[in-house]
UniProtKB/TrEMBL annotation:
Species this protein is from: Gryllus longicercus
Keyword flag Metal-binding: no
Stated name of the protein: Phosphotransferase
PROSITE patterns in the record: HEXOKINASE_1, HEXOKINASE_2
Single GO molecular function: glucokinase activity
Pathway assigned to this chain's UniProt record: Carbohydrate degradation; glycolysis; D-glyceraldehyde 3-phosphate and glycerone phosphate from D-glucose: step 1/4; Carbohydrate metabolism; hexose metabolism
Top class in the EC scheme: transferase
Its job: Catalyzes the phosphorylation of various hexoses to hexose 6-phosphate.
Origin superkingdom: Eukaryota
Length: 454
């Protein structure tokens, strides 16, 4: 962090607990690996915090997939319906539309949510004049699910601000099918349910054949990776194939206290004020739903201690949720020694009286919080790379935090390089629309399978 020189000692000291040493990161890796192994093993799975659910996806795309597919992507800020056509030479034609999920639907009855999804699907198919076709559909549903097959996923719990009654324990594919037939508008054949991390892995593997990890750093954080079937003890699918994709659900890592040695008062505050206290503690230290709020909490404390803004905050700064995660990216995008975006953000927050020193301090806090997130994500990715132990592995990543934060990629490249077993090569690539393409690819790979057996 090159700007330390101009940052007062008190500010730096307050931020120390938010900076993780390599030793701490290695300890986190050890604990995460232990959690992953417990999630995979028959005897320890039930009690394991990191669930490592099997996905039943065993084949990666190989470029021979062809046809027209639908995809639904539900799992965070936006809900999307997509129509994707796979052609020769990896040609990918995609039409998509974003539909809002109103807040009252996010926390209302489950039936209302699935009816809404079915209505949006029907409207989209009509708009594209395909309402009379029965197309295969991949359903990206990015919440923790126990899968019982490629087309059966039971919701374990809601995350990321959703809390719809009557869905936990239910098969979300069945709920979607019921809603579609109930609305009676279109016909669809659901070919697979997956989450966005799996979709990201598949969409990157379509381009980069050594892709073995899919990572999300968006509203939430999660990862999926390619595991040997022999290690996936609970997998009851085709054990004659060598691999199966594992959905780690690592957002829950730490829910048993494993991360308490690095959690701070700010992390505890975020958790206590969330709709799922005590849950998803790893995710809450990394992802976009919480990053801005973490920064705000640090700024509030420093303001109250008269270390910022001459002790004069603003109503907007003191109100929860007002410091958006995109502000972190904007503030850190200012060139060294300049504060144009920072000033704009502070003005929006009623802090027009900030001095240049305040701006430098605010940027420092943003850097500390986003760097911690990038380092935690890196430690978790390095854990998987070391576990996979292939000579060269590509990690596909999606999510607005990774996509838009100006330094996240570089921070991750540097830290993963420090943490992986010497000799293992890796690369990380941005997934172009992983959840949508990935869902279509699941449907397409399944269709390829049918074609083969037919
Ligand atoms: N410019 C930005 N820089 C950093 N974070 C951002 C930016 N814009 C949006 N975000 C954050 O990214 C999150 C949304 O992530 P994304 O767009 O990947 O959506 P998502 O699909 O809902 O996420 P997920 O895949 O976790 O379900 C929000 O928490 C938001 O605050």
């Amino acid at each position: 962090m090159c700007e330390c020189v101009s940052i007062p000692r008190e500010i730096r000291e307050r931020c120390e607990e938010l900076q993780l040493s390599d030793e701490q990161l290695r300890e986190i890796m050890k604990r995460l690996l232990d959690n992953i192994e417990r999630g995979l093993a028959r005897d320890t799975h039930a009690a394991s915090i990191v669930k490592c659910f099997v996905t039943y996806v065993q084949d990666l795309p190989n470029g021979t997939e062809r046809g027209k597919f639908m995809a639904l992507d539900l799992g965070g800020t936006n809900f999307r319906v997509l129509l994707i056509e796979l052609g020769e030479n990896m040609h990918f034609d995609m039409k998509s539309k974003i539909f809002a999920i109103p807040q009252h639907i996010m926390v209302g009855p489950g039936k209302q949510l699935f009816d809404h999804i079915a209505d949006c699907l029907g409207a989209f198919m009509k708009e594209h004049h395909i309402e009379h076709e029965c197309l295969p559909l991949g359903f990206t549903f990015s919440f923790p699910c126990v899968q019982k097959g490629l087309t059966k996923g039971l919701l374990v719990r809601w995350t990321k601000g959703f809390d719809c009654e009557g869905v936990i324990g239910q098969d979300v594919v069945e709920l979607l099918e019921q809603a579609i037939s109930h609305r009676n508008a279109v016909k669809i054949e659901i070919a697979g349910v997956l989450n966005d991390a799996t979709g990201t892995l598949l969409s990157c593997a379509h381009k980069q054949s050594n892709c073995r990890v899919g990572l999300i750093v968006g509203t939430g954080s999660n990862a999926c990776y390619v595991e040997k079937v022999e290690n996936a003890q609970l997998f009851d699918g085709d054990r004659s194939k060598p691999y199966v994709l594992i959905n780690t659900e690592w957002g829950a890592f730490g829910d048993d206290g494993a991360l308490d040695f690095v959690r701070t008062e700010f992390d505890r505050d975020i958790d206590n004020n969330s709709i799922n206290p005590g849950k998803q503690l790893h995710e809450k230290m990394i992802s976009g739903m919480y990053m801005g709020e973490l920064v705000r909490l640090v700024l509030v404390k420093m303001t109250n201690d008269k270390l910022l803004f001459n002790g004069q905050g603003s109503d907007l700064l003191f109100k929860r949720g007002n410091f958006f995660t995109k502000y972190v990216s904007e503030i850190e995008s200012d060139k060294k020694g300049t504060y144009a975006s920072c000033r704009q953000v502070l003005e929006e927050l009623g802090l027009g009286h900030a001095t240049d020193q305040d701006c430098a301090n605010v940027r420092y806090v943003c850097q500390v919080v986003s760097t911690r997130a990038a380092h935690l994500a890196s430690a978790a990715v390095a854990t998987l790379i070391n576990k996979i132990q292939e000579e060269s592995v590509t990690v596909g990543i999606d999510g607005s935090v990774y996509r838009y934060h100006p330094h996240f990629h570089n921070l991750m490249m540097d830290k993963i390089a420090t943490l992986v077993t010497p000799g293992l090569k890796f690369d990380i690539m941005l997934s172009e629309d992983g959840s949508g393409r990935g869902a279509a690819l699941v449907a397409a790979v399944a269709a390829r399978g049918h074609a083969k057996t037919a």
